[in-house]
């Protein structure tokens, strides 16, 4: 029983990853068949699709029908299809020849060339983005696919778009233009902080995702020009708000400075393997498992 469950989980992880690599152009059934034929070997499957598109025509419908006798394969197909909106199922044919036709007919756009290049090297392009649920007062970072950036709040189970880049907040990196000193501190884009060295007003250059602590903490005390900063620097600016946790707590403000916009699905995405990856807790396999467990919890509730 345990080995069967593990087999299903490994197959489901492989299928989700393969579909994301090809932007959902491969149906669940076809992805399962390919992974079964190549024993979940992503390198071989991707090379087969990219380099042997013409040979896909030799695969007939009987092979797909053979999955009906494969309990693990059928469970994976049902699990993923239950997570997927009807619009996502872009193919309705009954044989794998359509994969070859679709891929051979794709225009040579930069996006499609990038898809094949990434698939050939077993790569899913991703980006670290910040999300926040205002109602749950919860902020988190997730590594999400570049082409579809969405994440789910673990408390209320609602899906959100990322915080706009020009509104992000947290630990920021600064580069003082006056003395050329680099430093870090709490900030939001658009809110200046004084340089620890020369006190010149310095804007953050980027907001950093959370990482495991790799060294001693800085002894420099936070300070900014926001009107409610606990260590306010003059002249303060009315209308700006300090993002430092101490200032937020002292003023009885919630932790979330700006909530993410709710995500409204367009039906163009697939159940991705990266959508719920915590940057500080999980490696890639654990990220996929996190997605699978969440989807099954939702279906049971």
From TrEMBL:
Q: Which UniProt keywords apply?
A: Cytoplasm, Nucleus, RNA-binding
Alphabetically, the GO molecular function entries are: ribosome binding; sequence-specific mRNA binding
Q: Name one GO cellular component term.
A: P-body
For this entry, list what GO says about its biological process. Answer: innate immune response; viral translational frameshifting
- Quote the InterPro entries the UniProt record gives: SHFL
Keyword Cytoplasm belongs to the record: yes
**What does the UniProt entry say about where the protein is found?**
Cytoplasm, P-body; Nucleus
Chief location of this protein within or outside the cell: cytoplasm
| Pfam families reported in the protein's UniProt record | UPF0515
In the record, the note on similarity to other proteins reads: Belongs to the SHFL family.
Protein name (Swiss-Prot/TrEMBL): Repressor of yield of DENV homolog
The protein's organism comes out as Pelobates cultripes
